[in-house]
Amino acid sequence: MLLFFILGLLVHFVFFGSIFDIYFTSPLVHGMTPQFTPLPPPAKRLVLFVADGLRADTLYELDENGNSRAPFIRNIIMHEGSWGISHTRVPTESRPGHVALIAGFYEDVSAVAKGWKENPVGFDSLINESKYTWSWGSPDILTMFNFTYDEFFHAAGNNQSLFSKVNEEKIVFFLHLLGIDTNGHAHRPTSREYKDNVKVVDDGIKEIVSMLEHFYGNDGKTAFIFTSDHGMTDWGFHGAGHPSETLTPFVTWGAGIKYPQKVSAQKFDDAFLKEWKLENWKRQDIHQVSLCKELIHLALKGLSYYHTYDRFFLGINVVLGFVGWTSYAALLIIKSHSNLARGVSKEVKKPSHLLPCSFIAIGVLVAFFLLIQDCPWTYYVYCLLPMPIWYAVLREFQVIQNFVISLLTFPPSQLVGYLFVFTLGIEVLVLSFFYRYMLTAGLIAFACWPFITQLWTRAKSISLSWIFFSLLLAVFPLMPVVGRKPDIFLVMGAGLLVLLLSLSVVTSLIKRKDHFINEELLLHLFQMLSIVLSMCVAYTTHDSLRKKQGLPLFNQIISWITLASSFVLPLLSPTSLFERLFSILLSSMSAYLLLSTGYEALFPLVLSCLMFVWIQVEQETLQQHSVSYKQKVTSLQFTCHPDITQFRQLYLDDVRRAFFLVSFGLLSFSNVSATHGMFFCPFKQILIPFVLVMCAFEAVQLTTQLSSKSRHHQFDWFDLIVVDLCSFPYVFFLPVTCFFFSFCSISHYVIVMSMTIVLVFLNGLAHLLTTKKLELCGKPKSHLI
């Protein structure tokens, strides 16, 4: 089984990489003959100003006193040049924006593999075609076009060689202005710092324009362009397609540029003209599709067809491999861990020679087809991988036959109901990546679950707890993740709630241990102290950042120590189910408080409460399958060796449990805060709740009396199947959404595929946290004084 597990990981790594091979391919075509126009240009030189991260509304709108933040640019709009809005495209990052500005094409999507920092394929640009280019600004932007720095304007008057160069034709001066973007990230675009920086930029442009005009003696041969590479959201981020990120200013004046045109009316779908008091000056937007001529449009369609020619073919092969692998994993579960295996002959029947020969023949034909097309080696992997997978599936024909026969014994209405609920649940998980409130809908459905089972009549108190915490947890996906102000008092409140809960546990321990101090009690006291320390660090950090004094060094040291120890301290606690899980919660909360800025600090606490209830709920559901043996949850040990006669096979409820696990895990992704009190660490903020869920799932498998073998395989296969189905909702009659065939959701596909791999790591981590124990040097117990 270990071999199959390793193969499964390799298959998922292949599927993970396929998305980049199929979608992230370079759109550039090389080898074309350069074309030139015989007409003389109106300008001898171009001066390009790019204000990194500047939003169109921030530049054009008037301040609270009715004055422009950029009076020089405003004067250009009204008296000297043309203006408008440039519509950028996703990804709204600095490199893609500058590539579009200077090279004239959308960013090469294959550059995602380089983090949008460099292009894996060479391309032509305005800089290449100019005779000389001088530039100033951010190194990470300038080096993309092999720019050089030089303070030369003063030296040009004394250096004849430099003087002759700057007086040549076809020269470019490029100024990349980074201050606005920096202030936007640090203080957000609505801040005074961001808006004041616009005034600083305006003054600087005025000074540079004056210097250039003086240097060239006002010869009228200089063209000026002022624009931005991208905008920025209200919470200080960019990269997506929100209008605040894609709408950027564009102002141009000088040689070859028309003077302002006054108009009485303009037709635009927005209300910007009235808001900016510019309704009488003609606005000329730059939109990179809408202005294309028919010939250019056809050429782009041809290029698109050329570059996407193999996309559908490769996509179908990857889907075939994915569906085959999911089917094979399901068949292994049915064969090894369900009652259906009893109806299958234990004798291993040799498959017909026709079956392997058929697959070998198909594989040879596919390989020959790829060979004559001179395809890269990765195409062979994607196209030939489904062959052995489907061969393994068809070898289990007896299992498939028994499974179908077993399904036919179900009442049709019940079978349809199962399929509908399962498929609908998968689609809800998929949609939750696009609409967070779908998680709320799912949790509300979870809250209603006891009413459609016997759980409500058999255990009302547990059912009420399940309903309460499910509905309470359903509030979190409705809360804003970004665009909100930090609320340190919510963080402090979460810490106090955990301390009160810990105090009650410590009190019970003191009573139970007859006033003896033991390692367990000392550990809880130490973890409580750690939570208090985390609260103090979070509060002082918030205060320091609010005063713009930076992050204190002491806070950084304490934070790293707390984060490092959060997964070590639980190993000192007893391995009894409740005490170990509670210790994991305390250590996790110490770290999570450092990463929180508001309501999300309450998330692990509410999630853990629901997880404790889930453990009890699942134990109650065993009675539906006539499992009479039931040990109390408080007496269970993670390291115990229960009676093997009490072990059972897998039921349909185990599929539901795996579905619950993935659903609760996805909640961790939905609760990541945009900014953190300590430092930006979203992975840690996702990891902590996910670990809590995985540890609870370990307890669920223990309380539901699965054998260690079944428990291990239930995670390995059930959960991976559920995650895979989220990646390819190609199930039954409701293939509504498919991550793979939706270009706009590639990031979501990558997240899901990463979950498949990360689940394996988290399963091992949860097993370590729940079953292992570190023994300290033994000391005799001492009485409390």
From TrEMBL:
SUPFAM superfamilies: Alkaline phosphatase-like
GO CC field: endoplasmic reticulum membrane
Pfam family, one: PigN
GO molecular-function terms, A-Z: mannose-ethanolamine phosphotransferase activity
Enzymatic class: transferase
Gene name linked to the record: PIGN
Role this protein plays: Ethanolamine phosphate transferase involved in glycosylphosphatidylinositol-anchor biosynthesis. Transfers ethanolamine phosphate to the first alpha-1,4-linked mannose of the glycosylphosphatidylinositol precursor of GPI-anchor.
InterPro entries: Alkaline_phosphatase_core_sf, GPI_EtnP_transferase_1, GPI_EtnP_transferase_1_C, Phosphodiest/P_Trfase, PIGN_N
Pathway(s) the chain acts in: Glycolipid biosynthesis; glycosylphosphatidylinositol-anchor biosynthesis
Family the UniProt entry places it in: Belongs to the PIGG/PIGN/PIGO family. PIGN subfamily.
Transmembrane annotation, as ranges: 312-334, 354-371, 377-394, 415-435, 441-457, 464-482, 488-509, 521-541, 553-572, 601-617, 658-680, 686-706, 718-743, 749-769
Highest taxon, organism lineage: Eukaryota
Keywords, in A-Z order: Endoplasmic reticulum, Glycoprotein, GPI-anchor biosynthesis, Membrane, Transferase, Transmembrane, Transmembrane helix
Residue span(s) of domain GPI ethanolamine phosphate transferase 1 C-terminal: 301-669
Protein's membrane topology: Multi-pass membrane protein
EC code: 2.-.-.-
Location(s), subcellular: Endoplasmic reticulum membrane
Membrane in keyword set: yes
Identification of the protein by name: GPI ethanolamine phosphate transferase 1
The keyword Transmembrane helix belongs to this UniProt entry's keyword annotation: yes
GO biological process: GPI anchor biosynthetic process
